[in-house]
Design brief:
Blueprint: H1 16-27, H2 32-39, H3 43-53, E1 54-58, E2 64-68, H4 70-82, H5 94-105, H6 110-119, H7 129-137, E3 172-173, E4 188-194, E5 204-210, E6 216-221, H8 226-240, H9 244-247, E7 250-253, H10 262-266, E8 276-279, H11 289-299, H12 313-324, H13 336-350
Helix pairs in contact: 1-4, 2-3, 3-4, 6-7
Length: 352
């Protein structure tokens, strides 16, 4: 009988060789006790294995027979082994899973969801942003990956470009701008356009972002050209009145044709007050990073290809308010709106 069995497995678990030996022993009508003794396992272990791998098959006469299949037993063992370990936090908490899905659909980032779970909602368990990212990527939540504001993207090979010379056209190069990398001074803005359809020739959005607070202003413009940009800035000037030149000390733009009228954008007064206009280098969007990130948040609501012709300024203002009220991790989850009000209040107080 010993020639029928091979116990080469040094672990305490049955392997495929042992399962095949069990199958041979059953075919030769050996008892469970004798199979267990030869393989060096307990009788209960062999009994449980036979129960796990037993299945029904049809013979050539279409009659059912109950047999033990070593392949089936190994497959079931592997499946159970895969399911071993600690259960996920959402396996026994459907409310938590539904809440996370709802916040993702409301365009919250995993970092903001983590903060909300700790401060705004009562749950017995806490979930990190990294865990939420993993649940989205591996399909645990059943939502598409593009629901994330910054989903993983395929990295393309980048080619080095030489910085082209800036043609200020009435403005100055960003190289002439004072060092604002620390973002300690309030009143320095970045400007850009979010285009609609027809390659930006129709209705577009002009976006302004303050570098220190990340507060944004969005205005709908009829066309993406110089005249529309200057007119939009004049509307903003009329809104802020005498405080305009203290709140808008400088504006940094890219080299787009719509920003070529730097003199008009400066809104210079006869007594010398004006907004300083700077131009970033070509292919260097990182020099206006705050504005680029703000535009990405706008694209959560207005994806590329959206026509702004039938979208009212009121709808745009709602999205702008959502962005300005969005909890930001870099500000310890304070919103840009409260920071902007705090900074602008200082200017108002000094001029009283």
């Amino acid at each position: 009988m010993s020639s029928t069995y091979y116990n080469l497995n040094q672990s305490k678990n049955l392997g495929f060789i042992e399962r095949y030996s069990i199958q041979c022993g059953i075919i030769n009508k050996h008892s469970v006790s004798s199979i267990a003794k030869e393989l060096g396992f307990s009788r209960q272990t062999i009994h449980n294995e036979i129960k796990r791998g037993t299945t029904e098959i049809l013979d050539t006469f279409l009659e059912k027979h109950t047999v033990y299949d070593s392949y089936l037993g190994q497959i079931k063992h592997d499946q159970c082994k895969h399911l071993k370990g600690r259960l996920s936090k959402i396996d026994d908490d459907a409310n938590l899973m539904n809440y996370i899905i709802q916040r993702l659909e409301a365009k919250d980032s995993p970092e903001v969801i983590e903060w909300r779970l700790k401060n705004e909602f009562t749950f017995s368990t806490s979930v990190s942003a990294r865990t939420i990212y993993n649940w989205v990527y591996n399909g645990t939540l059943g939502v598409p990956v593009n629901i994330l504001p910054y989903a993983k993207k395929k990295r393309l090979k980048r080619f080095k470009r030489e910085k082209s010379r800036i043609k200020p056209n009435g403005g100055q190069s960003i190289e002439s701008r004072m060092d604002l990398s620390d973002r300690l001074e309030f009143g320095h803005w970045e400007i850009d356009c979010v285009v609609g359809t027809r390659n930006g020739k129709s209705t577009s959005l002009m976006t302004l972002v303050e570098r220190k607070t990340r507060f944004g202003i969005v205005l709908k413009i009829p066309r993406k050209n110089k005249k529309s940009i200057v007119n939009a800035l004049k509307k903003i000037k009329a809104k802020y009145g005498k405080y305009f030149y203290d709140i808008f000390k400088s504006i940094t733009a890219d080299n787009g044709s719509e920003f070529k009228d730097a003199i008009g954008m400066s809104l210079k007064l006869k007594r010398g007050k004006k907004v300083k206009i700077y131009f970033a280098h070509a292919y260097c969007s990182f020099e206006r990073g705050s504005n680029e990130n703000f535009n990405r948040m706008i694209r959560r609501w207005f994806p590329k290809g959206t026509s702004f012709c039938n979208i009212s300024q009121e709808e745009i203002d709602k999205v702008t308010s959502w962005i300005n009220e969005y909890p930001r991790k870099q500000f310890d989850f304070m919103c840009s709106n409260s920071l902007f009000i705090k900074e602008s209040s200082k200017i108002v107080d000094t001029q009283k």
